[in-house]
C-alpha cells in the first residue's frame, strides 16, 4: 500500500487506470490521493466482486473520483478513448490476472493511451508472479524500470512491485 501511495503521490495523475478492482482497496487508496478534478477508472471482470467494490468505494466517500468499469480488460482498454474520453493515462496500476499484464501493456501502447512519462505499477510480480511481463518490460527500451521489494499482503512472503515509466 505504501509503495502504491508513494508512486501515486510522485505521478500526481489527472487520469489513472486500475486493472483489477477486486474489493476496491487499492482504488480507495489511489482515489484519496487524487487532486481535485482527477479521476480513476478501475476495471473489474467479476460482477459479484465489482458490486462489493462499488459499496466500499461509496463507503469511503470517493465515488466522485472513481468510475468502476465492469468487463474484461482487453475489451475495455480499446474503448477508453472514444467511450470514456481518455486522451492518455498518467498512471496505470496492474493488479488483475498476471497473465494479462503483458498483453494489456501492449494493448495500452497500441491504443495510444500511454504518453511520455506515463507510469505503470505492477503488483505481485513474484507471487503469484508475472515472469512474462517482467521479461517484456525490462527488455523494452520504451520503458525505464524500477523494482520495489515488498511482502505479500498480511504474510511474510517476499514479493515485489515493478514500476515502469514509458518513454515513448
TrEMBL record:
Signal peptide: none annotated. GO terms for molecular function: catechol O-methyltransferase activity. Its EC number is 2.1.1.6. GO terms for cellular component: axon; dendrite; membrane. It is an enzyme of class 2 (transferase). GO terms for biological process: catecholamine catabolic process; developmental process; dopamine metabolic process; methylation. Keywords: Catecholamine metabolism, Methyltransferase, Neurotransmitter degradation, S-adenosyl-L-methionine, Transferase. CDD domains: AdoMet_MTases (cd02440). Gene3D superfamilies: Vaccinia Virus protein VP39. Belongs to the class I-like SAM-binding methyltransferase superfamily. Cation-dependent O-methyltransferase family. This is catechol O-methyltransferase. It comes from Centropus bengalensis.
Amino acid at each position: 500500500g505504501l509503495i502504491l501511495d508513494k508512486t501515486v503521490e510522485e505521478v500526481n495523475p489527472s487520469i489513472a487506470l486500475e486493472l483489477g478492482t477486486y474489493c476496491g482497496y487499492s482504488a480507495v487508496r489511489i482515489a484519496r490521493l487524487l487532486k481535485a478534478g482527477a479521476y480513476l477508472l478501475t476495471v473489474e471482470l467479476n460482477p459479484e466482486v465489482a458490486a462489493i467494490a462499488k459499496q466500499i468505494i461509496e463507503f469511503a466517500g470517493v465515488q466522485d473520483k472513481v468510475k468502476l468499469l465492469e468487463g474484461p480488460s482487453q475489451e475495455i482498454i480499446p474503448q477508453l478513448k472514444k467511450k470514456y474520453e481518455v486522451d492518455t493515462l498518467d498512471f496505470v496500476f496492474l493488479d488483475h490476472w498476471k497473465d494479462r499484464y503483458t498483453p494489456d501493456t501492449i494493448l495500452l501502447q497500441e491504443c495510444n493511451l500511454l504518453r511520455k512519462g506515463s507510469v505503470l505499477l505492477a503488483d505481485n510480480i513474484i507471487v503469484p508472479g508475472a515472469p512474462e511481463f517482467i521479461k517484456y518490460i525490462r527488455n523494452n527500451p520504451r520503458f525505464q524500470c524500477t523494482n520495489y521489494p515488498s511482502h505479500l499482503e498480511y504474510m511474510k512472503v517476499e514479493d515485489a512491485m515493478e514500476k515502469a515509466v514509458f518513454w515513448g
